[in-house]
Amino acid sequence: MDLFELLNFYVIPGIVLGSIYALGAVGITLIFAILRYAHLAHGDLATFGAFVALACVTAMGVPPLAALPIAILVTAAIAVGIDKVFYEHLRERPKIVTVMASLGIALMLRSVVQVVWGVDTQTYSRGIVRPEDYFGLRIRDRELYTVAALIVLVGGLQLFLTRSKWGKAMRAMSDNPNLALLSGIDNRKVVMLTWVIAGGLCAASGFFLGYNTEIKSMMGWHMLLPMFAAAILGGVGRVEGAVLGGLIVGIAEELSVLVIPSEYKAAMAFAILLFMLLVRPTGLLKGKVL
Amino acid sequence: MEFLGLVNYALFTAIFIAIYALLALGLNIQWGFAGLFNAGIAGFFAVGAYTSAVLTTPADDGRLGGFDLHFVLGWIGAMLAAALVAWPIGKICLRFRSDYLAIASIGVAEIIRLVIKSEEVVTNGARGISGIPRPAGDIGYTESQIAYLVIVLAVLIAAYVLVERQFNAPWGRMMRAIRDNEDAAKAMGKDVEFRRLEAFIFGAALMGLGGALFAHFNRSITPEAIDPMVATFLVWIMLILGGSGNNRGAILGAAVVWIIWSVSEIATDRLPHEYAIQAKYIRLFLIGLMLQLVLRFRPEGLLPEPLRGDLRGSRRTTKSGADHNQARSTGPEIDL
């Protein structure tokens, strides 16, 4: 196999898939670091976002990319709402209770999607898109948009976290919650901001998975494991780590079919997760271990 | 005829409740005693079901085995296999907070599903394994159902007696001590990781046994026999509603939830066809909502964990002692 074949058929799809995982993993890592629990409904929240975008496309006839901002806003609002209704009153209880509640939320979100939109596979736009040729690299427009969205959204998030007052408050809560609370940071606002960011990124992740492949009611659940693997691989609490982790998991999944049967592609994320927990639970970029 | 139908339905329901009660007991060892979050119950269930199926079916050219062993050996094999799958996962994940185990157990269930679907040599792929012998299966239908119910109940009672004994034994007290205050237990010289691993493996073995009982009841097992997420979730809601930390609660929860679940199925089956599929998902939504309501309004469940002496007021949220965020919140706490 020559280099271009490797790049075109494995590495480029891997980067695209990795960008999708990374968008979700950033939200997981923020929730893990700031709210301190594993949010198991993250995948199904991404499914929900993808279907909101689909509803916009079919109802208003807008192009898929124009539906993305709407999906991000709606999903962010839903995420805040879920937190207010279901998670907020569990905050003083052991964190694992919230993990359990989030498993229930995953089931509820998925059944809402299945009731409202059905269980059939759908797409944003019909027809085959031929990839363009860039010096031998075959890349589709939508693949470029996916990677561009990752760069723009995560770049913006990094600026927000490092430059703005509320971003710094979020980082403070992640580093040392007691000290942050003592210095007068409003916990409720930080929690809400975390959900807005995580929900919005979740919708983007689900949207781009649907944009590059198909939209299915189970697609988010199957993304949950790779997203967690990415967050832990990069180091919990590290945004840039989640991006790095997402890309590694995505590329590893695509390359894995060269050595193991393709049915086991999904097992790659699990193998990475266990390996990291075994040898370096803090992740590549020295994150937290809860 | 009508009466016989009712009897058969009641027997069918009772057998299912007993099998689910076994799963809930297994989860109670993991969650109720040790505070371990296992979200891959269906995986251990499937391992048990397939192991027993391979061990007890007559030889078949198309796949591994079968070994045509006695069903008791098949059931023991199922428990051993489930325990063997649980061991490495527990070994890796139990050093950390239970969140990591939750994620890893979802992964395990997913991998087991993949293996069952694609390893035709062992599991016969999508066709599944049929012709699994059922103990006392060659007498009349109703008689055989009664006989199987008796066997399943005997297994359940044996499991209950053993688990209840462990709960009141020093081992049970130690597990709850580790669950409620890891640091203190460590300071008393308890090997926290090893004890958690024990609880995880025992629980998984019971889940494997539940799977084996299911396979022999059905006389066949296919990848589509159970919906992993639904099965896992049903067992969780059974334990939480019944009362985690209470073995009688786990069994009561299994009965209550399974009856609600099957009555709602009867109700939705009467709907016209175009609503029937949606109704299935509405049932799932409601079962998810039920968990949220129980967690909020009755976290201790129908039968709370039995506590000796006046411990209730003095319990603190130090389930995971290392987490300062949790240690900070004080006050009477539920028995999780």
> What kind of assembly state do the chains in view correspond to?
heterodimer
Helix content of chain A: over 70%
Taken from the alpha-carbon principal axes, the silhouette of chain B is: globular
| Rg result of chain B | 20 Å
Give the mean pLDDT of chain B.
86
Work out the helicity level of chain B. over 70%
Structural class category of chain A? mainly alpha
- Report, as a whole number of angstroms, the end-to-end distance of chain A: 43 Å
Major beta sheet, strand line-up of chain A: 1-2
What is the helix tally of chain B?
Answer: 13
Which strand order does the major sheet of chain B show?
1-2
Largest sheet of chain B: 2 strands, antiparallel
Number of strands of chain A: 2
CATH topology of chain A: ABC transporter involved in vitamin B12 uptake, BtuC
What's the pLDDT, averaged over the residues of chain A? 92
Distance between the termini of chain B: 47 Å
Identify low-pLDDT runs of chain A. Answer: none
Order of helices and strands of chain A: HHHHEEHHHHHHH
Tell me what the structure shows.
- The complex is a heterodimer of chains A (290) and B (336).
- Chain A is an all-alpha fold.
- Chain A has a single domain (3-120, 137-279), classed as ABC transporter involved in vitamin B12 uptake, BtuC (Orthogonal Bundle), CATH 1.10.3470.
- Chain A is built from eleven helices and two strands; from the N terminus they run ααααββααααααα.
- Chain B is an all-alpha fold.
- Chain B has a domain at 8-226.
- Chain B contains 13 helices and two strands.
- Chain B has helices at 2-33, 41-56, 71-93, 98-118, 120-123, 141-168, 170-180, 182-187, 192-218, 228-242, 247-269, 273-297, 324-328; strands at residues 129-130, 220-221.
- Chain B has a two-stranded antiparallel ribbon with strand order 1-2.
- In chain B, helix 1 runs antiparallel to helix 9 (192-218), helix 2 packs antiparallel against helix 3 and helix 2 packs across helix 9 (192-218).
- The longest helix of chain B is centred in the first third of the chain and has 32 residues, at 2-33.
- The N and C termini of chain B lie far apart (47 Å).
- Chains A and B meet through helix 4, helix 9 and helix 11 of A and helix 3, helix 4, helix 10, helix 12 and helix 13 of B.
- Chain B: The chain crosses the membrane at residues 6-29, 36-57, 69-87, 146-163, 197-217, 229-261.
